[in-house]
Amino acid sequence: MKCRKCSAKAVINMRQHKLALCKSHYLDWIPEQTQRFIDKYKMFTHDDNILVAVSGGKDSLALWDILVRLGYRTAGLYIGLGIDGGISYSDESQRLAKKFAQSCNLHLISVGFPEEYGSTIPEIAKLTMRGRGKPCSVCGMSRRHIMNRVAREEEFDVLVTGHNLDDEAAVLFGNTINWQGGYLLRQQPVLEANHPGLVKKAKPLCRFYEREMAAYTILRDIEYVYDECPYSVGAKSIYYKELLNKLETDRPGAKLNFYLSFLRAKKEGLFSSSTDQKPMELNTCNNCGQPTSVPGECAFCRMLVSIAD
Known about the structure:
The protein is an alpha/beta fold.
C-alpha cells in the first residue's frame, strides 16, 4: 500500500479516514491533527504552562512528545503507586518515564504514593475494601487527587492526560448502557476549572485510536511499558473495548462516530431539558482544600483517616 501524499510505502492504513501514510507523513500528520483538536476544543494556548500526566505507557509519552514538538511549555508528572506485577510494574513505568524525560531534557515531577502516605495503593485498597474487589477505584481517586494537587501547587494552567479514543469510547459505552447521566454530563474533551482549587483538564488525544498512538511511539522510537496494570485483568473497560473493537472491524470508524455523535448531541442540547441531571455542585474539603462533591472532607482525606484508625 502506498502513502496517500507521496506514493512511498505506507506504514499505516487508517480505514476510518481512508488514509494511508508513510513514516514521514504520518509523524507529521499526528501533531497536525493534535493541534487541530487543541484549537477546536479550546484546550490551551502556547502561553499556558502544561502539566502532562505520564504513566510510562504509550499514550502519555506520545502526548508529551507531541506537545514538545508543537512548541508547548510542558512538565511531566509521574505518580508511583507501588503496584507490583512480576518485575515491579510501578518501577518499570517510572524508569521509562524518567528515561524519556532525560532523553528530551524535560522536567519530570515524581510523587511516590508509598513515600508520601505510608502505604501502596494495593495495601490501602485491602484495608478500605476489606479484600473485596480490585483497587482500581482507590487508584483512580488517588491519582485524580494528586494530579490536581500538584498542578495547583506548582501553578500549572492545565493538566493534560493521554486518554485516547478507545478509552473515551469505552467509558461512553459503559455509561450509556447503564445510563449514568451524571457521568455522561461530565464526559468531554475539556473540563474547565469551575471551582476554586480545581485545575483545568484536557485530553488532546481523545480522537486518536489506540493503534495510532502505538504506531506513533514505535515510529518515534519511544520506549514504553507494554504490559497493562496487573489489576486491569477482567476490568469492565477492557470488556467494553473488546466489544467496540468487534464493531469497528465490521464498521471502520464506528468508535469515532460514536464518540463524535455524542459530543455533537451534547452541544445541541442532549441534557438541556433534563431537570435531574444538573452539573455537580462542588464544595471545598475542610482538610486539604481540594474540591469535593460532598460537604466536609473529600473522599481521599476520609480514606486516609480510615486507614490511620
